[in-house]
Write a structure and sequence with these properties.
- By secondary structure, the protein is mainly α.
- Helices cover 83% and strands 8% of the residues.
- The protein contains two helices and two strands, in the order H-E-E-H.
- A two-stranded antiparallel sheet has the order 1-2.
- A hairpin with a 2-residue loop joins strand 1 and strand 2 (63-67).
């Protein structure tokens, strides 16, 4: 009986460990998105300081190509909108993962207690 509980405990522990790795990856991705938001906000602020007499260039591969100021502002605004949407998606994902992780912790705790009781009973029989 204790062996069956131990196997189940081991399986649950592996699931929990994998879930923690997934949470870690998601948090890392979210941090990268936060960095991108910061960088794009700086670009937006710089573009807002310019007027129509200034020239804006866009780097495409190894070449600088002239770009319209309004077009550059629109591109940065759309990029910010997209990145913020992705951040919201990751926040929702992380909340769900935290709930599942908490459920796994509870299952692991109950399995550990059950395993300890089973070991205690088998030790008492011996």
């Amino acid at each position: 009986m204790a062996e069956a509980i131990q196997k189940k405990l081991q399986a649950e522990l592996e699931k929990y460990t994998q879930m923690q790795k997934d949470v870690s990856k998601s948090m890392s991705s979210r941090q990268k998105l936060e960095t991108q938001v910061t960088e794009n906000n700086i670009v937006k602020e710089e573009l807002d300081m310019l007027d129509s007499t200034n020239t804006v260039y866009k780097l495409i591969g190894p070449v600088l190509v002239k770009q319209d100021l309004d077009e550059a502002k629109a591109t940065v605004a759309k990029r910010l909108e997209y990145i913020n949407g992705e951040i919201q998606r990751y926040e929702t994902l992380l909340k769900d993962m935290e709930k599942k992780s908490e459920q796994h912790r509870e299952v692991l705790s109950s399995l550990q207690q059950e395993y300890q009781r089973a070991q205690g009973l088998s030790a008492g029989k011996a």
